Amino acid sequence: MAALIEIERLTKRFGAFTAVDDVSFTVNRGEVVGFLGPNGAGKSTTMKMLAGFVTPSAGTARICGQDVIEAPVAAKRALGYLPEGAPTYPEMTVTGFLAFIARIRGFSGAEATERMARAMAMTQLEGVRLQPIETLSKGFKRRVGLAQALLHDPPVLVLDEPTDGLDPNQKHEVRELIRRMAPEKAIVISTHILEEVDAVCTRAIIIARGKVLADATPKELEAPGKTLEQVFRDLTLKQEAA
Amino acid sequence: MRAALLVARRELSGYFATPVAYVFIVIFLMMAGAMTFSLGGFFNRGQADLGPFFGFVPWLFLFLVPALTMRLWAEERRLGTIELLLTLPMAQWQAVLGKFLAAWAFCAIALALTFPLVMTVNFLGRPDNGVVAAGYGACLLMAGAYLAIGSAMSAMTKNQVIAFVLAVAVCFLFAVAGSALVTDFLSQRMPVLAEVARALSLTERFNGLTRGVIALRDVVFFASFIGFWLFVNAVVLDHRKAD
Prior knowledge:
- Chain A is α/β, with parallel strands linked by helices and about 240 residues long.
- Chain A has helices at about 45-50, 70-75, 95-105, 110-120, 140-150, 170-180, 195-200, 220, 230-240, and strands at about 5-15, 15-25, 30-35, 60-65, 65, 80, 155-160, 185-190, 205-210, 210-215.
- Chain B has one domain (about 1-240).
């Protein structure tokens, strides 16, 4: 079976600066890939290219076999994407916002209602469903963004810092959610939190200055008697010195 | 088209969820009324038509429409929702069209709320209501042309002030292109350009329509003018969306 996410020699240059440099990897169903790297390493840019928001300078990516450049709408249909910072329309209510997403995604009537109810149940939003999003706390806002990404039960999930701004209990819940969904999906999450990689990811990709430095299971990375944190520091600082 | 209408619906309800809609409508109605009755001499003219009103609307729109469009894409950029909107499964032109349609429908609402003028003129005399209807149609087309320019300018910059100033400048250019001042100046120096300027003028065509002369070529001109600027909007958006 072909991988659900295929990234092929993806490159993004902004003027003379290369944000993402010849990155290739694939993600299969059942895998949760933790995308690690210092700030400005190119994590978000890679994810934005995967979501079809940033146009690559070279290379391409496929989601469920659909090329993000040649068949962007088909690729976006198979993708649930949580952009960095989980942006939402502040003046809308939670239900209003999710209903808009459901309709754009082609659901209507009872099916839309059912999918909204399911997404809100998965992210524990029922209590605030009629509140305008701008009145919600940061943790709730992030969960609204997450609900939006999960609404159509996509085979591929790309989540840019899904637990940023959540309290420890909420972090735990989001990780549980990701773990529950993992067997049927291909999931990529970006994070700064190394313990999160240990907790939910089946594979870790470390990226710095746009280049992939390591691609292995968290266990393998830790193998020579080091913690993941030491490995991360060794790899990324070594590269900065070079 | 379905996705474009869904975007338009969300946008339009967004206008009314914030004070933007109310401020715009109140200012528009107050200024339109004041200009028609005082500056336009609505009563003194002794004519049962809405000539003064239709004479002022394009100049009001010249400032009010860019105020509406300056936030169109700039606001999405500020909130980061542009990333959400453009990663939903729809083509980019659908998002562009949806936003334009919402703003256009909003202008139509503002225009429709000037209905007391129509009632007044019908109460006082016997106007040719066909001409009045043509005038309203012309106002709507004019608003559409300015909106299309304004939304393209808004896609070019994330700064709302720059978007506003650019939109006013470009709209003004097309509004005065056919005026004697411009064409005389050009015909003395570059006669070819004078012809071009006259052909691209919005005001000439607008005036023709408000006199009740509905020429197909004028309507086609407005439609292709709007189409052109929406196309510019989509191209600019595609290049600058992630900046």
